[in-house]
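Protocol step 6 of 9: fold each sequence in the batch and record its C-alpha coordinates directly after the sequence line. For illustration, a two-sequence batch is reproduced in full.

Sequence one:
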Amino acid sequence: MAPSSADLLRAASARPRPSLQRPSYFFEGLRAQAFWPRESFPKVVALLEACASELSEEVQSLLEDALSSESGEEPPRTKRRRGIEGAEGRPDDRLERNKNICSRTEVTPRSSPWQPQGEGLHEGVWLKLELWARGGPLASGKAAPKTRAAVAACMSTGEAMAVPPGRAALSYMMCGAHVKPHCGPTNHRLRLHLPLLLPSPQMTGLTVAGEARAWDLHRCLIFDDSFEHEVQLPPLSREDALSDARVVLLLDLWHPDAGFLREQATQAVPEREKCSRKHAYTV
Protein backbone atom coordinates (compact mmCIF):
# COMPACT_ATOMS: atom_id res chain seq x y z
CA MET A 1 0.00 0.00 0.00
CA ALA A 2 1.46 3.37 -1.02
CA PRO A 3 2.13 5.87 1.79
CA SER A 4 -0.23 8.82 2.07
CA SER A 5 0.94 12.43 1.71
CA ALA A 6 0.53 12.84 5.46
CA ASP A 7 2.86 9.85 6.05
CA LEU A 8 5.40 11.29 3.62
CA LEU A 9 5.36 14.69 5.33
CA ARG A 10 5.79 13.16 8.78
CA ALA A 11 8.72 11.05 7.58
CA ALA A 12 10.32 13.96 5.78
CA SER A 13 10.22 16.22 8.84
CA ALA A 14 12.31 13.70 10.82
CA ARG A 15 15.11 13.11 8.30
CA PRO A 16 18.60 14.63 8.48
CA ARG A 17 19.68 17.13 5.84
CA PRO A 18 22.81 18.98 4.63
CA SER A 19 24.02 21.78 6.90
CA LEU A 20 22.98 24.58 4.53
CA GLN A 21 19.72 22.89 3.54
CA ARG A 22 17.38 23.07 6.51
CA PRO A 23 13.72 22.89 5.43
CA SER A 24 11.03 21.80 7.85
CA TYR A 25 10.26 18.90 5.49
CA PHE A 26 13.25 17.18 3.89
CA PHE A 27 12.64 14.42 1.33
CA GLU A 28 15.51 12.06 0.58
CA GLY A 29 16.43 11.13 -2.98
CA LEU A 30 15.99 14.61 -4.44
CA ARG A 31 19.05 16.18 -6.06
CA ALA A 32 20.39 18.94 -3.86
CA GLN A 33 21.82 21.94 -5.68
CA ALA A 34 21.47 25.62 -4.95
CA PHE A 35 20.74 26.77 -8.53
CA TRP A 36 19.03 24.98 -11.39
CA PRO A 37 19.43 25.42 -15.16
CA ARG A 38 16.59 27.11 -16.98
CA GLU A 39 16.55 24.17 -19.41
CA SER A 40 15.12 21.97 -16.64
CA PHE A 41 11.80 23.83 -16.96
CA PRO A 42 11.42 24.59 -20.67
CA LYS A 43 7.65 25.19 -20.70
CA VAL A 44 7.50 27.69 -17.86
CA VAL A 45 10.68 29.52 -18.87
CA ALA A 46 9.57 29.90 -22.49
CA LEU A 47 6.11 31.06 -21.49
CA LEU A 48 7.31 33.69 -19.00
CA GLU A 49 10.23 35.07 -20.96
CA ALA A 50 8.04 35.47 -24.05
CA CYS A 51 5.73 37.87 -22.21
CA ALA A 52 8.25 39.42 -19.80
CA SER A 53 8.30 42.86 -21.45
CA GLU A 54 4.51 43.07 -21.36
CA LEU A 55 4.45 42.05 -17.70
CA SER A 56 7.08 44.68 -16.89
CA GLU A 57 4.88 47.38 -18.39
CA GLU A 58 1.92 46.20 -16.35
CA VAL A 59 3.89 46.19 -13.09
CA GLN A 60 5.44 49.57 -13.82
CA SER A 61 2.00 51.07 -14.44
CA LEU A 62 0.66 49.44 -11.28
CA LEU A 63 3.43 50.96 -9.18
CA GLU A 64 3.07 54.38 -10.78
CA ASP A 65 -0.66 54.36 -10.04
CA ALA A 66 0.02 53.30 -6.43
CA LEU A 67 2.50 56.14 -5.98
CA SER A 68 0.17 58.70 -7.53
CA SER A 69 -2.68 57.63 -5.24
CA GLU A 70 -0.37 58.08 -2.23
CA SER A 71 0.91 61.49 -3.33
CA GLY A 72 -2.25 62.87 -4.92
CA GLU A 73 -0.31 63.62 -8.13
CA GLU A 74 -0.76 62.40 -11.66
CA PRO A 75 1.28 59.21 -12.19
CA PRO A 76 4.75 59.97 -13.62
CA ARG A 77 4.82 58.18 -16.99
CA THR A 78 8.41 57.16 -17.41
CA LYS A 79 10.58 56.37 -20.37
CA ARG A 80 12.03 52.84 -20.25
CA ARG A 81 14.72 51.05 -22.22
CA ARG A 82 15.99 48.27 -19.96
CA GLY A 83 14.81 48.10 -16.38
CA ILE A 84 14.06 51.42 -14.70
CA GLU A 85 16.10 54.41 -15.80
CA GLY A 86 14.23 57.29 -14.18
CA ALA A 87 11.44 59.58 -15.24
CA GLU A 88 11.92 61.91 -18.13
CA GLY A 89 11.41 65.50 -17.06
CA ARG A 90 10.67 64.63 -13.42
CA PRO A 91 11.29 67.59 -11.06
CA ASP A 92 14.01 67.11 -8.51
CA ASP A 93 11.67 67.84 -5.61
CA ARG A 94 9.62 64.73 -6.49
CA LEU A 95 12.53 62.57 -5.32
CA GLU A 96 12.00 63.62 -1.72
CA ARG A 97 8.24 62.98 -1.97
CA ASN A 98 8.86 59.53 -3.42
CA LYS A 99 11.35 58.82 -0.63
CA ASN A 100 8.68 59.72 1.92
CA ILE A 101 6.10 57.56 0.14
CA CYS A 102 8.47 54.59 0.19
CA SER A 103 9.16 55.05 3.87
CA ARG A 104 5.43 54.57 4.49
CA THR A 105 4.90 51.55 2.27
CA GLU A 106 5.50 49.08 5.10
CA VAL A 107 2.07 50.19 6.38
CA THR A 108 -0.17 49.78 3.37
CA PRO A 109 -3.96 50.09 3.33
CA ARG A 110 -5.78 46.78 3.50
CA SER A 111 -7.41 47.72 0.17
CA SER A 112 -4.03 47.93 -1.57
CA PRO A 113 -2.92 44.87 -3.55
CA TRP A 114 0.62 45.49 -2.24
CA GLN A 115 1.03 44.22 1.29
CA PRO A 116 4.07 44.14 3.60
CA GLN A 117 6.04 41.03 4.34
CA GLY A 118 5.27 40.05 7.90
CA GLU A 119 7.82 37.38 8.79
CA GLY A 120 10.23 39.72 10.55
CA LEU A 121 13.12 38.67 8.32
CA HIS A 122 14.02 41.95 6.68
CA GLU A 123 15.10 45.55 6.98
CA GLY A 124 14.02 48.16 4.43
CA VAL A 125 11.08 48.19 2.02
CA TRP A 126 9.75 44.76 0.99
CA LEU A 127 6.20 44.31 -0.30
CA LYS A 128 4.31 41.52 -2.03
CA LEU A 129 1.35 41.24 -4.35
CA GLU A 130 0.09 37.70 -4.00
CA LEU A 131 -1.17 36.00 -7.15
CA TRP A 132 -1.56 32.32 -6.33
CA ALA A 133 -1.69 30.34 -3.07
CA ARG A 134 -3.58 27.51 -1.38
CA GLY A 135 -4.16 25.85 -4.74
CA GLY A 136 -5.70 28.68 -6.73
CA PRO A 137 -5.59 32.32 -7.89
CA LEU A 138 -6.08 35.08 -5.31
CA ALA A 139 -8.33 38.12 -5.57
CA SER A 140 -5.38 40.49 -5.10
CA GLY A 141 -4.01 39.29 -8.44
CA LYS A 142 -6.85 41.04 -10.27
CA ALA A 143 -4.77 44.22 -9.97
CA ALA A 144 -2.30 42.68 -12.46
CA PRO A 145 -4.49 40.71 -14.91
CA LYS A 146 -1.79 39.94 -17.49
CA THR A 147 0.60 38.68 -14.84
CA ARG A 148 -2.18 36.68 -13.22
CA ALA A 149 -3.01 35.07 -16.57
CA ALA A 150 0.64 34.20 -17.18
CA VAL A 151 0.82 32.52 -13.78
CA ALA A 152 -2.35 30.53 -14.49
CA ALA A 153 -0.88 29.37 -17.80
CA CYS A 154 2.28 28.24 -16.00
CA MET A 155 0.23 26.26 -13.50
CA SER A 156 -1.24 24.21 -16.37
CA THR A 157 2.19 23.09 -17.66
CA GLY A 158 2.84 20.52 -14.94
CA GLU A 159 6.18 22.18 -14.12
CA ALA A 160 4.76 24.80 -11.78
CA MET A 161 3.50 23.78 -8.34
CA ALA A 162 -0.20 24.62 -8.39
CA VAL A 163 -0.95 22.95 -5.03
CA PRO A 164 0.23 24.08 -1.57
CA PRO A 165 2.89 24.98 -0.64
CA GLY A 166 3.24 26.27 -4.22
CA ARG A 167 2.67 29.99 -4.62
CA ALA A 168 3.21 32.90 -6.97
CA ALA A 169 3.61 36.58 -6.17
CA LEU A 170 5.17 39.84 -7.24
CA SER A 171 7.96 40.74 -4.84
CA TYR A 172 8.88 44.43 -4.57
CA MET A 173 12.02 45.61 -2.78
CA MET A 174 13.73 48.97 -2.66
CA CYS A 175 17.49 49.21 -2.95
CA GLY A 176 19.08 48.95 0.47
CA ALA A 177 16.71 46.17 1.60
CA HIS A 178 18.20 43.22 3.46
CA VAL A 179 16.53 39.85 3.98
CA LYS A 180 18.23 37.76 6.65
CA PRO A 181 19.48 34.25 5.85
CA HIS A 182 16.64 31.74 6.04
CA CYS A 183 15.43 28.45 4.54
CA GLY A 184 12.17 27.61 2.79
CA PRO A 185 9.82 24.92 4.12
CA THR A 186 10.53 21.96 1.83
CA ASN A 187 13.03 20.62 -0.70
CA HIS A 188 10.43 19.18 -3.10
CA ARG A 189 9.77 22.61 -4.60
CA LEU A 190 12.07 25.08 -6.32
CA ARG A 191 11.64 28.83 -6.72
CA LEU A 192 11.74 30.78 -9.96
CA HIS A 193 12.43 34.52 -10.16
CA LEU A 194 11.58 36.48 -13.30
CA PRO A 195 12.99 40.03 -12.87
CA LEU A 196 10.48 42.53 -14.24
CA LEU A 197 11.89 45.82 -12.93
CA LEU A 198 15.50 46.45 -11.96
CA PRO A 199 17.55 49.63 -11.46
CA SER A 200 19.86 48.35 -14.22
CA PRO A 201 19.78 45.43 -16.69
CA GLN A 202 21.65 43.28 -14.16
CA MET A 203 21.47 43.48 -10.38
CA THR A 204 23.37 41.67 -7.64
CA GLY A 205 22.01 40.80 -4.23
CA LEU A 206 20.92 37.13 -4.05
CA THR A 207 23.05 34.52 -2.27
CA VAL A 208 22.01 30.86 -1.99
CA ALA A 209 24.13 28.36 -0.03
CA GLY A 210 27.02 30.82 -0.13
CA GLU A 211 26.85 31.29 -3.92
CA ALA A 212 26.00 34.76 -5.23
CA ARG A 213 24.03 35.21 -8.43
CA ALA A 214 22.78 38.29 -10.27
CA TRP A 215 19.28 38.92 -11.56
CA ASP A 216 19.14 39.59 -15.32
CA LEU A 217 16.15 41.55 -16.55
CA HIS A 218 13.50 39.30 -18.17
CA ARG A 219 15.60 36.15 -17.68
CA CYS A 220 14.41 33.40 -15.34
CA LEU A 221 16.59 32.46 -12.37
CA ILE A 222 15.77 29.22 -10.54
CA PHE A 223 17.06 28.18 -7.13
CA ASP A 224 16.27 25.80 -4.30
CA ASP A 225 15.01 27.95 -1.43
CA SER A 226 15.29 25.07 1.05
CA PHE A 227 18.97 26.05 1.10
CA GLU A 228 19.91 28.99 3.27
CA HIS A 229 19.49 32.12 1.18
CA GLU A 230 19.79 35.85 1.73
CA VAL A 231 19.12 39.10 -0.14
CA GLN A 232 21.25 42.21 0.26
CA LEU A 233 20.37 44.84 -2.31
CA PRO A 234 22.80 47.62 -3.25
CA PRO A 235 22.37 50.96 -1.47
CA LEU A 236 19.83 53.50 -2.63
CA SER A 237 21.12 55.53 -5.55
CA ARG A 238 18.30 57.95 -6.37
CA GLU A 239 15.96 57.41 -3.41
CA ASP A 240 13.13 56.97 -5.87
CA ALA A 241 10.32 54.46 -5.50
CA LEU A 242 10.60 53.40 -9.14
CA SER A 243 14.23 53.96 -10.08
CA ASP A 244 15.47 51.99 -7.07
CA ALA A 245 12.90 49.21 -7.33
CA ARG A 246 13.53 45.49 -7.69
CA VAL A 247 10.37 43.65 -8.72
CA VAL A 248 10.46 39.96 -9.53
CA LEU A 249 7.69 37.56 -10.35
CA LEU A 250 8.26 34.53 -8.17
CA LEU A 251 6.76 31.17 -8.99
CA ASP A 252 7.18 27.81 -7.28
CA LEU A 253 8.12 24.75 -9.34
CA TRP A 254 8.11 21.03 -8.73
CA HIS A 255 11.54 19.57 -8.08
CA PRO A 256 12.29 17.43 -11.16
CA ASP A 257 12.84 14.36 -8.95
CA ALA A 258 9.60 14.77 -6.99
CA GLY A 259 7.30 12.82 -9.31
CA PHE A 260 6.24 10.51 -6.47
CA LEU A 261 5.05 13.56 -4.52
CA ARG A 262 3.33 15.13 -7.50
CA GLU A 263 1.18 12.00 -7.76
CA GLN A 264 0.09 12.60 -4.17
CA ALA A 265 -0.64 16.28 -4.83
CA THR A 266 -4.41 15.96 -4.51
CA GLN A 267 -4.14 14.33 -1.07
CA ALA A 268 -3.42 15.73 2.39
CA VAL A 269 -4.29 19.30 1.40
CA PRO A 270 -4.65 20.43 5.05
CA GLU A 271 -1.05 19.43 5.80
CA ARG A 272 0.20 21.27 2.73
CA GLU A 273 -1.83 24.38 3.55
CA LYS A 274 -0.43 24.38 7.09
CA CYS A 275 3.08 24.23 5.64
CA SER A 276 2.25 27.04 3.22
CA ARG A 277 0.84 29.35 5.90
CA LYS A 278 3.74 28.80 8.27
CA HIS A 279 6.41 29.51 5.66
CA ALA A 280 5.14 32.16 3.26
CA TYR A 281 8.52 33.72 2.51
CA THR A 282 8.51 35.43 -0.87
CA VAL A 283 12.02 36.66 -1.57
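Sequence two, same batch, same settings:
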Amino acid sequence: MALQALQSSGVAFRKILSHFPEELSLAFAYGSGVYRQVGPSSDQKNAMLDFVFTVDDPVAWHSKNLKKNWNHYSFLKVLGPKIITTVQNNYGAGVYYNPLIMCDGRLIKYGVISTSILIEDLLNWNNLYIAGRLQKPVKIIAMNENVALRSALDKNLKSAVTTAFLMLPESFSEEDLFIEIAGLSYSGDFRMVVGEDKTKVLNIVKPNIAHFRELYGSILQENPQVVYKIQQGRLEIDKSPEGQFTQLMTLPKTLQQQINHVMDPPGKNRDVEETLLQVAHDPDCGEVVRRGLSAIVRPSSMKQSTKGIFTAGMKKTVVYSSLKLHKMWKGWLRKTS
Protein backbone atom coordinates (compact mmCIF):
# COMPACT_ATOMS: atom_id res chain seq x y z
CA MET A 1 0.00 0.00 0.00
CA ALA A 2 1.39 3.43 -0.95
CA LEU A 3 0.57 4.90 2.45
CA GLN A 4 3.10 2.63 4.18
CA ALA A 5 5.91 4.43 2.35
CA LEU A 6 5.11 7.56 4.36
CA GLN A 7 5.89 5.96 7.73
CA SER A 8 8.87 7.07 9.80
CA SER A 9 10.45 5.98 13.08
CA GLY A 10 12.52 9.17 13.57
CA VAL A 11 13.33 9.52 17.27
CA ALA A 12 14.35 13.19 16.86
CA PHE A 13 10.94 14.04 15.38
CA ARG A 14 9.10 12.20 18.14
CA LYS A 15 11.12 14.10 20.77
CA ILE A 16 9.92 17.37 19.26
CA LEU A 17 6.38 16.00 19.19
CA SER A 18 6.57 15.35 22.95
CA HIS A 19 6.51 19.13 23.54
CA PHE A 20 2.93 19.35 22.21
CA PRO A 21 -0.50 18.06 23.29
CA GLU A 22 -0.88 14.39 22.36
CA GLU A 23 -4.34 14.40 20.79
CA LEU A 24 -3.21 14.11 17.15
CA SER A 25 -4.90 12.10 14.39
CA LEU A 26 -1.84 12.69 12.17
CA ALA A 27 1.54 14.38 12.55
CA PHE A 28 4.11 14.63 9.79
CA ALA A 29 7.34 16.47 8.99
CA TYR A 30 8.20 17.70 5.51
CA GLY A 31 10.50 19.96 3.52
CA SER A 32 14.23 20.46 3.13
CA GLY A 33 14.95 19.76 6.80
CA VAL A 34 13.57 16.24 6.35
CA TYR A 35 14.43 15.19 2.79
CA ARG A 36 17.58 16.37 1.07
CA GLN A 37 17.11 19.00 -1.63
CA VAL A 38 19.58 20.49 -4.07
CA GLY A 39 20.09 24.22 -4.56
CA PRO A 40 19.66 26.87 -1.84
CA SER A 41 17.78 24.42 0.45
CA SER A 42 20.63 21.87 0.46
CA ASP A 43 21.84 22.72 4.00
CA GLN A 44 19.70 20.02 5.62
CA LYS A 45 21.40 20.15 9.03
CA ASN A 46 20.51 23.82 9.63
CA ALA A 47 17.22 23.94 7.71
CA MET A 48 14.04 24.76 9.57
CA LEU A 49 11.94 21.66 10.30
CA ASP A 50 8.35 21.90 9.05
CA PHE A 51 5.52 20.00 10.78
CA VAL A 52 1.77 19.63 10.34
CA PHE A 53 -0.42 18.45 13.24
CA THR A 54 -3.91 17.19 12.42
CA VAL A 55 -6.40 17.36 15.31
CA ASP A 56 -9.99 16.24 15.76
CA ASP A 57 -10.87 19.09 18.15
CA PRO A 58 -8.85 22.25 17.38
CA VAL A 59 -10.38 24.29 20.24
CA ALA A 60 -9.37 21.69 22.84
CA TRP A 61 -5.92 21.20 21.26
CA HIS A 62 -5.12 24.94 21.09
CA SER A 63 -6.38 25.35 24.65
CA LYS A 64 -3.84 22.78 25.88
CA ASN A 65 -1.08 24.10 23.62
CA LEU A 66 -1.59 27.66 24.88
CA LYS A 67 -0.95 26.36 28.41
CA LYS A 68 2.17 24.47 27.31
CA ASN A 69 3.52 26.83 24.64
CA TRP A 70 2.02 30.29 25.21
CA ASN A 71 5.01 32.03 23.61
CA HIS A 72 4.56 30.17 20.29
CA TYR A 73 1.52 32.29 19.40
CA SER A 74 1.13 35.82 18.08
CA PHE A 75 -1.11 38.47 19.69
CA LEU A 76 -4.09 36.23 18.78
CA LYS A 77 -3.34 34.15 21.89
CA VAL A 78 -5.00 36.77 24.10
CA LEU A 79 -8.27 36.15 22.22
CA GLY A 80 -8.29 32.50 23.27
CA PRO A 81 -8.54 29.08 21.57
CA LYS A 82 -12.01 29.62 20.04
CA ILE A 83 -10.91 32.69 18.06
CA ILE A 84 -7.65 30.95 17.06
CA THR A 85 -9.70 28.01 15.77
CA THR A 86 -12.06 30.34 13.88
CA VAL A 87 -9.05 31.96 12.17
CA GLN A 88 -7.60 28.50 11.48
CA ASN A 89 -10.73 27.00 9.94
CA ASN A 90 -12.35 29.93 8.16
CA TYR A 91 -9.47 31.80 6.53
CA GLY A 92 -6.85 30.74 4.00
CA ALA A 93 -6.31 27.02 3.56
CA GLY A 94 -7.69 25.86 6.92
CA VAL A 95 -4.29 25.61 8.63
CA TYR A 96 -2.82 27.71 11.47
CA TYR A 97 0.99 28.10 11.40
CA ASN A 98 3.33 29.04 14.23
CA PRO A 99 6.75 29.68 12.58
CA LEU A 100 10.29 30.29 13.87
CA ILE A 101 9.96 28.29 17.10
CA MET A 102 13.05 26.92 18.91
CA CYS A 103 12.27 23.37 20.05
CA ASP A 104 14.77 20.76 21.20
CA GLY A 105 17.62 22.78 19.73
CA ARG A 106 16.06 23.04 16.27
CA LEU A 107 14.21 25.86 14.55
CA ILE A 108 10.74 24.60 13.60
CA LYS A 109 7.48 25.74 12.04
CA TYR A 110 4.25 23.87 12.75
CA GLY A 111 0.79 24.05 11.26
CA VAL A 112 -2.43 22.85 12.88
CA ILE A 113 -5.37 21.64 10.79
CA SER A 114 -8.71 20.04 11.63
CA THR A 115 -8.99 16.35 10.68
CA SER A 116 -12.31 16.94 8.90
CA ILE A 117 -10.92 19.86 6.85
CA LEU A 118 -7.84 17.83 5.88
CA ILE A 119 -9.98 14.88 4.75
CA GLU A 120 -12.06 17.26 2.59
CA ASP A 121 -8.91 18.73 1.04
CA LEU A 122 -7.42 15.29 0.37
CA LEU A 123 -10.59 14.07 -1.35
CA ASN A 124 -11.78 17.21 -3.18
CA TRP A 125 -8.72 19.49 -3.40
CA ASN A 126 -10.65 22.46 -1.99
CA ASN A 127 -7.33 24.26 -1.32
CA LEU A 128 -4.67 21.76 -2.47
CA TYR A 129 -2.52 23.12 0.34
CA ILE A 130 -1.85 20.42 2.94
CA ALA A 131 -3.10 17.87 0.38
CA GLY A 132 -0.33 19.16 -1.90
CA ARG A 133 2.28 18.70 0.84
CA LEU A 134 1.15 15.10 1.17
CA GLN A 135 1.66 14.41 -2.55
CA LYS A 136 5.41 14.67 -1.92
CA PRO A 137 7.46 12.44 0.40
CA VAL A 138 6.87 13.29 4.07
CA LYS A 139 7.80 11.64 7.37
CA ILE A 140 4.71 10.51 9.22
CA ILE A 141 5.52 10.58 12.93
CA ALA A 142 2.12 9.72 14.40
CA MET A 143 -1.17 8.49 12.95
CA ASN A 144 -4.21 7.04 14.67
CA GLU A 145 -6.60 4.42 13.30
CA ASN A 146 -8.90 6.88 11.51
CA VAL A 147 -10.05 4.80 8.52
CA ALA A 148 -11.54 7.80 6.68
CA LEU A 149 -8.26 9.73 6.98
CA ARG A 150 -6.15 6.79 5.79
CA SER A 151 -8.46 6.25 2.81
CA ALA A 152 -8.35 9.97 1.94
CA LEU A 153 -4.51 10.00 2.09
CA ASP A 154 -4.43 7.13 -0.41
CA LYS A 155 -7.05 8.77 -2.67
CA ASN A 156 -5.01 12.00 -2.73
CA LEU A 157 -1.98 10.13 -4.12
CA LYS A 158 -4.09 8.42 -6.79
CA SER A 159 -5.63 11.76 -7.78
CA ALA A 160 -2.14 13.27 -8.10
CA VAL A 161 -1.11 10.49 -10.51
CA THR A 162 -4.25 10.88 -12.64
CA THR A 163 -3.88 14.67 -12.84
CA ALA A 164 -0.21 14.37 -13.81
CA PHE A 165 -1.09 11.83 -16.54
CA LEU A 166 -3.42 14.38 -18.15
CA MET A 167 -0.55 16.89 -18.43
CA LEU A 168 2.06 14.45 -19.79
CA PRO A 169 2.63 12.97 -23.26
CA GLU A 170 1.97 9.33 -24.19
CA SER A 171 5.45 8.19 -23.11
CA PHE A 172 7.60 9.70 -20.35
CA SER A 173 10.11 8.93 -17.60
CA GLU A 174 9.52 8.41 -13.87
CA GLU A 175 11.31 11.68 -13.25
CA ASP A 176 8.94 13.50 -15.65
CA LEU A 177 5.98 12.08 -13.71
CA PHE A 178 7.35 12.95 -10.27
CA ILE A 179 8.24 16.50 -11.37
CA GLU A 180 4.67 16.95 -12.62
CA ILE A 181 3.23 15.55 -9.36
CA ALA A 182 5.52 17.67 -7.15
CA GLY A 183 4.50 20.77 -9.11
CA LEU A 184 0.73 20.31 -8.81
CA SER A 185 0.37 22.33 -5.61
CA TYR A 186 2.64 25.10 -6.94
CA SER A 187 0.51 25.74 -10.05
CA GLY A 188 -0.44 29.40 -9.84
CA ASP A 189 1.14 29.83 -6.38
CA PHE A 190 2.16 33.50 -6.18
CA ARG A 191 5.05 32.52 -3.84
CA MET A 192 6.78 30.96 -6.85
CA VAL A 193 7.03 34.51 -8.21
CA VAL A 194 8.04 36.16 -4.93
CA GLY A 195 9.77 34.29 -2.12
CA GLU A 196 10.45 30.80 -3.51
CA ASP A 197 13.31 29.49 -5.63
CA LYS A 198 12.02 29.02 -9.20
CA THR A 199 13.75 25.60 -9.49
CA LYS A 200 12.11 24.42 -6.26
CA VAL A 201 10.22 21.51 -7.86
CA LEU A 202 13.33 20.13 -9.58
CA ASN A 203 15.30 20.55 -6.37
CA ILE A 204 12.68 18.52 -4.48
CA VAL A 205 12.46 15.66 -7.00
CA LYS A 206 16.00 15.03 -8.25
CA PRO A 207 17.57 13.84 -4.95
CA ASN A 208 14.41 11.99 -3.91
CA ILE A 209 13.45 9.82 -6.90
CA ALA A 210 13.67 6.70 -4.69
CA HIS A 211 11.27 8.23 -2.13
CA PHE A 212 8.77 9.20 -4.84
CA ARG A 213 9.05 5.70 -6.31
CA GLU A 214 8.35 4.21 -2.88
CA LEU A 215 5.33 6.48 -2.46
CA TYR A 216 3.78 5.92 -5.90
CA GLY A 217 5.17 2.55 -7.09
CA SER A 218 2.24 0.36 -6.06
CA ILE A 219 -0.33 2.86 -7.40
CA LEU A 220 1.41 2.87 -10.80
CA GLN A 221 1.66 -0.93 -10.89
CA GLU A 222 -2.04 -1.33 -10.08
CA ASN A 223 -3.29 1.39 -12.48
CA PRO A 224 -4.93 -0.23 -15.54
CA GLN A 225 -4.31 2.86 -17.71
CA VAL A 226 -0.52 2.80 -17.54
CA VAL A 227 2.25 0.48 -18.73
CA TYR A 228 4.95 0.85 -16.07
CA LYS A 229 8.37 -0.39 -17.24
CA ILE A 230 10.08 -0.41 -13.87
CA GLN A 231 13.52 -1.53 -15.07
CA GLN A 232 13.75 1.28 -17.65
CA GLY A 233 11.98 3.82 -15.43
CA ARG A 234 9.55 4.56 -18.30
CA LEU A 235 5.77 4.79 -18.48
CA GLU A 236 3.19 4.75 -21.28
CA ILE A 237 -0.40 5.93 -20.88
CA ASP A 238 -3.61 5.97 -22.90
CA LYS A 239 -3.96 9.44 -24.46
CA SER A 240 -7.09 8.64 -26.50
CA PRO A 241 -10.13 10.86 -25.84
CA GLU A 242 -11.80 7.87 -24.19
CA GLY A 243 -8.81 7.33 -21.89
CA GLN A 244 -8.59 11.01 -21.01
CA PHE A 245 -12.34 11.21 -20.33
CA THR A 246 -12.04 8.29 -17.88
CA GLN A 247 -9.21 10.13 -16.10
CA LEU A 248 -11.05 13.47 -16.06
CA MET A 249 -14.12 11.82 -14.52
CA THR A 250 -12.05 10.57 -11.55
CA LEU A 251 -10.45 13.94 -10.75
CA PRO A 252 -11.22 15.59 -7.39
CA LYS A 253 -14.52 17.45 -7.38
CA THR A 254 -13.13 20.98 -6.97
CA LEU A 255 -10.70 20.51 -9.86
CA GLN A 256 -13.54 19.26 -12.09
CA GLN A 257 -15.58 22.33 -11.14
CA GLN A 258 -12.68 24.68 -11.89
CA ILE A 259 -12.11 23.02 -15.29
CA ASN A 260 -15.81 23.50 -16.00
CA HIS A 261 -15.49 27.17 -15.03
CA VAL A 262 -12.44 27.61 -17.31
CA MET A 263 -14.24 26.06 -20.31
CA ASP A 264 -17.82 27.18 -19.77
CA PRO A 265 -18.76 30.31 -21.78
CA PRO A 266 -20.66 32.93 -19.73
CA GLY A 267 -24.36 32.16 -19.49
CA LYS A 268 -24.17 28.63 -20.93
CA ASN A 269 -24.06 26.70 -17.61
CA ARG A 270 -23.17 23.29 -19.02
CA ASP A 271 -22.95 20.40 -16.62
CA VAL A 272 -19.48 19.19 -15.57
CA GLU A 273 -19.63 15.85 -17.41
CA GLU A 274 -20.43 17.56 -20.73
CA THR A 275 -17.49 19.93 -20.26
CA LEU A 276 -15.08 17.11 -19.33
CA LEU A 277 -16.09 15.21 -22.48
CA GLN A 278 -15.19 18.28 -24.55
CA VAL A 279 -11.85 18.66 -22.71
CA ALA A 280 -11.03 14.97 -23.33
CA HIS A 281 -11.11 15.68 -27.09
CA ASP A 282 -9.18 18.95 -26.79
CA PRO A 283 -5.51 18.84 -27.94
CA ASP A 284 -4.82 21.32 -25.11
CA CYS A 285 -6.40 19.07 -22.46
CA GLY A 286 -3.29 19.23 -20.23
CA GLU A 287 -3.20 23.03 -20.33
CA VAL A 288 -6.88 23.22 -19.39
CA VAL A 289 -6.21 20.97 -16.38
CA ARG A 290 -3.26 23.18 -15.41
CA ARG A 291 -5.46 26.27 -15.53
CA GLY A 292 -7.99 24.49 -13.32
CA LEU A 293 -5.23 23.74 -10.79
CA SER A 294 -4.07 27.38 -10.82
CA ALA A 295 -7.62 28.51 -10.09
CA ILE A 296 -7.52 26.45 -6.87
CA VAL A 297 -3.94 27.16 -5.77
CA ARG A 298 -3.60 30.90 -6.48
CA PRO A 299 -6.36 32.22 -4.16
CA SER A 300 -5.61 29.56 -1.54
CA SER A 301 -1.89 30.43 -1.33
CA MET A 302 -2.53 34.19 -1.30
CA LYS A 303 -5.13 34.00 1.50
CA GLN A 304 -2.97 31.63 3.55
CA SER A 305 0.07 33.93 3.25
CA THR A 306 -2.01 36.96 4.23
CA LYS A 307 -3.36 35.03 7.21
CA GLY A 308 0.24 34.25 8.21
CA ILE A 309 0.80 37.94 9.07
CA PHE A 310 -1.79 37.59 11.85
CA THR A 311 -0.96 34.07 13.04
CA ALA A 312 2.81 34.65 13.07
CA GLY A 313 2.80 38.32 14.04
CA MET A 314 4.49 41.13 12.13
CA LYS A 315 8.02 40.59 13.51
CA LYS A 316 8.12 36.88 12.68
CA THR A 317 6.50 37.52 9.28
CA VAL A 318 9.30 39.94 8.36
CA VAL A 319 12.01 37.51 9.54
CA TYR A 320 10.40 34.50 7.83
CA SER A 321 9.87 36.41 4.56
CA SER A 322 13.47 37.63 4.57
CA LEU A 323 14.70 34.03 4.99
CA LYS A 324 12.61 33.00 1.97
CA LEU A 325 13.91 35.90 -0.12
CA HIS A 326 17.49 35.11 0.93
CA LYS A 327 16.98 31.50 -0.21
CA MET A 328 15.56 32.70 -3.55
CA TRP A 329 18.54 35.08 -3.97
CA LYS A 330 21.00 32.24 -3.28
CA GLY A 331 19.24 30.13 -5.92
CA TRP A 332 19.49 32.94 -8.46
CA LEU A 333 23.20 33.46 -7.73
CA ARG A 334 23.84 29.72 -8.06
CA LYS A 335 22.15 29.68 -11.51
CA THR A 336 24.05 32.72 -12.80
CA SER A 337 27.49 31.72 -11.48
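Proceed to step 7 once all outputs are recorded. Observation for sequence two: The longest strand covers residues 95-103.
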